[in-house]
Amino acid sequence: MLIDGESVVDGGDGTIEVLDPATGQAVAHVPAASAADVDRAVTAARRSFADGRWHGLAAEERRRILWRFADLIAANFTELSHIDVVDNGMPLAFAEWEIRSCEAWTRAAAGLATQIFGRNASTMASGGGTNMHAYTLVQPVGVVGLIVPWNAPAGNLMVKLGNALAAGNSCVVKPAEETPLSALRLGELALEAGIPPGVLNILPGHGRVAGQAIADHADIDKISFTGSTATGKHIVRSAAGNLKRVTLELGGKSPAIVFDDADLDAAIPQVAMAIFANTGQVCFAGSRLFVQRGAYDKVVAGVADFAKSLKIGSGFDSANLLGPLISSKQQDRVADYMQRGRQQGAEVVTGGGLLDGQGFFVEPTIFANVHRDMDIVREEIFGPVLVATPFDDIAEVVAAANDTRYGLGAGVFTRDVNKAHSMARAIDAGNVWVNCYGTIHPSLPFGGFKESGWGREMGAEGLAAFTETKAVYIQLEG
Asked: Do 315 and 323 meet the contact criterion of CB atoms below 8 Å apart?
């Protein structure tokens, strides 16, 4: 663990065995933080915030240090990429994209550190003949808890951490117990970059212990959490103790919608990788495919052929575009959903099975002949499982796309610009991609509608989530 700038090798909750999902074999052991460990880290973070060792620096100095942090991420690109392949099982190409994104997000956060401004409201506050100078101050929230999932360990951390540090906060991070290694390495690089001890504390640990302690802690001012909707609801209940601010990036059951006027040859690989990228372990995965009836057979057959062509195995083999699921527990979960799909009458177009041998592998799977009440249609599976449905007109597909408790992402494939804009407006999702899927840029916000979360990450909105705004009124003489 990293607490107050020091490496801590003993955790009060024992140890965590870290497995390589491609082999099922242990690759590391890390300490598991207890509630007492969390308290030590929060105390260190609060002390660092109180004495201003980070937020008290000039904004230009915070920018310089964060830029140096991004330089170190770039300098350690290969190591960080390989850590997440071993830790998560993802293909190396996906891990490399993730670490490049970490660098980009950190540089964007560095720039935002000098773009935190209040506003002069003296004119509005000076009515009635008073001589009033009024303005707003934008300040860091204080001590923030960052709880990170396992599906993109480094990336999910840096999306949160960059803006939290840019705003001047002190941080307590809990990486997922399955994937703690890249967070610990990034913590070392942060210290090397010049982030003061105590400002960033990293605690591997179990959610039920360390995560719960962070959610409950009375001296944490805000939590930013990415993970399941069920856990997000639990955090909201726990945060009520001291009314912590909460940002939640939760689950999804996102639609990919293909109209018959789309460039189908271009759309087919896009909608395939919308669900199969990172073995479907993506919060905004395009897990529901809607195709206009005239193109339905061609698109479903094309996606099925694409799925059959995917090579599956270790992420270190560049020929493999699909890696394992994160754990045997997740493999069992996905297998259970596929079995329920069959039992409820869905047709398996391709896949539907597990791979023999070491590791937690599952075939890329497509179901057809589905209806809205099936579990595989309603619930987030978090695996490479796609459900396909034909539609006839815009009104029908909008209603079907919005018929979910989630609202994180949506893809629309069409050559008709009017249709593209109309669909972007009509779909209840925080992110809409037209003739592409899953594009993310650090200047734009990311988040969801409905049970896909609260608030936004990245961009100016992501920075604002880590600040408080104060109104100041000064009565002047004369």
From this structure: yes
Average pLDDT, integer, range 340-358: 96
pLDDT mean over 181-195: 98
Give the Cα separation of 395 and 416 in Å (integer).
Answer: 16
Q: pLDDT value at position 69?
A: 98
DSSP 127: G
Neighbour-count burial for 368-387, b at 16+ CB within 10 Å, e otherwise: bebeeebebbebbbbbbbbb
Do the bridges between strand 6-7 and strand 15-20 make them parallel or antiparallel, or are there none, so unpaired? unpaired
Confidence of residue 421 (pLDDT cuts 50, 70, 90): very high
Q: How far apart (Å, rounded) are the C-alpha atoms in residues 228 and 415?
A: 35
From 96, 171, 177, 283, active-site residue: 283
- Token pair listed for 198: 């105590």
Domain ranges in the chain are 2-250+448-475, 255-434
Q: Give the pLDDT mean for 268-284.
A: 97
Question: Do 2-250+448-475 and 255-434 share a fold?
Answer: no
- Mapped onto helix, strand or coil, the DSSP state of residue 208 is helix
Q: What are phi and psi of 132, to 5 degrees?
A: -120, 130
Residue 249 is a catalytic residue? yes
Whole-number mean pLDDT of the chain? 96
Write the DSSP symbol of residue 211: I
Distance of CA 47 to the CA centre of its chain: 29
Residue 5 CB coordination number (10 Å) = 17
CATH placement of domain 2-250+448-475: 3.40.605.10
User: Domain 255-434 carries which CATH code?
Assistant: 3.40.309.10
Residues in the chain: 478
pLDDT at residue 290 is higher than 70 = yes
What's residue 125's pLDDT? Answer: 64
Phi, psi (degrees; rounded to nearest 5) at 349: -80, -40
The residue from 98, 103, 249, 451 that is catalytic is 249
